[in-house]
Amino acid sequence: MSWPSSPGSSTTHSSNPFAGPEPSATAIRDLNIEARVPIRLDSSSTSYYAWKTYFNLVFREYYLTEHIDGSVDNAYMCSDPEWSAIEATIIRWFYQTQEFFGCHQDNSTIDEYCMRLKMLADELRDIGAKVSDDLMLSTLTAVLNEDFGNAASNLTPLPQPTFQRVVAYLKLEERRMTKLKQRVQHTALAAGRPYPDGASPM
User: Please, where are the H alpha helices in 62-132?
Assistant: First the structure.
């Protein structure tokens, strides 16, 4: 995991100005990060800098800066269970404070919704919190609007479902539903029932 260093900052372990007592993985895990970082990261640059500032304060207070400033080789430290546990907790914090998990389809098309999810996943990746295909898939299907209720239930039998395959399926289902709605509207017009309560055009 890495965090953008400020210009001229040292990358050596010994000169880290915020080095301190090794934090407890248990204490870090139990920290209420949403209370410490009351900013949900979205695509605006303003929210990003406020979000990052709050996180930097937490990292400094709990001596976690070495986990994100590039001063320690994470590949070397991954064999340390305590270090790995803290790394996992920090990644979970990023997820908890990211707009990715509050993103809903609402009235967006499948294309618009999936592009939004992909952009947010890319932002998470840029801060070292990679979103797996399984997580993308579960997030996508969990917050589809009610029109896709039947479509979501039909995803289980799909062989080796991936994010791309499910998106392709949902696009086909969206087109099918659009054509069905158009057919219903056409039938209503043909039957002479285009206006509610028996009203007729002027």
Answer: 74-77, 81-96, 110-126
Same structural domain for residues 118 and 87?
no
Instruction: Give 64-96 pLDDT, tens digit per residue.
Output: 888 877 777 766 677 788 888 888 888 888 877
**In angstroms, what CA-CA distances link 100 with 82, 117, 124, 170, 173?**
28, 6, 8, 19, 24
Domain count, the chain: 2
Q: Is the pTM of this model over 0.70?
A: no
In a domain, 178, yes or no: yes
**pLDDT at res. 57:** 92
| 138 Cβ contact list (under 8 Å, min separation 6) | none
Mean pLDDT of the chain: 76
User: Which pair of tokens denotes residue 64?
Assistant: 């976690």
Residues 2, 92, single domain; the answer is yes
Residue type, 58: V
Same domain, 80 and 130: no
Complete DSSP assignment for 2-65 = --PPPTT----STT-TT--SPPPHHHHHT--HHHH----B-SSHHHHHHHHHHHHHHHHHTT-G
Range of the domain at 41: 1-97
Among the candidates 82, 97, 112, a domain finishes at: 97
C-alpha distances (whole Å) from 75 to each of 16, 41, 81 are: 19, 27, 13
Is residue 68 a part of any domain in this protein?
yes
Spatial separation of the C-alpha atoms in residues 126 and 130, rounded to whole Å? 8
